Known about the structure:
Order of helices and strands: EEEEEEEH
Oligomer: single chain
Mean pLDDT: 86
Structural class: mainly beta
Radius of gyration: 14 Å
Distance between the termini: 27 Å
Strand content: 35-45%
Largest sheet: 4 strands, antiparallel
Strand order of the largest sheet: 1-2-3-4
Amino acid sequence: RTWTKPYTTDIPNADTKVTVLKRGGKIYMINNFNPVPEWLQRNHLWIAESTDGKTFTKIANIENDDEWVFYPHAFFDENERILYVAYENFRQHFLKKFTFEELGITD
């Protein structure tokens, strides 16, 4: 298998850690999606989905606080039909879970 050539996406700022998961025909990305290229603006964490890997649509807000949040990690639990998301804010670590139904995942 070979890598594709790089291409432009609609992600506004790639200066933050991105977590990407693939499930079925969709790609799920967890990122701050911040249009300001400054690390101090990492305060809204989202889950977005894409079918082509170029255009992403936000489907769930993980954290919408003025608190900075960083370094998301995630995994799907297929048996329980849950997406687990872990992240931090310099002082604490957080773990949130989203049911497939909350995310609109029907298959």
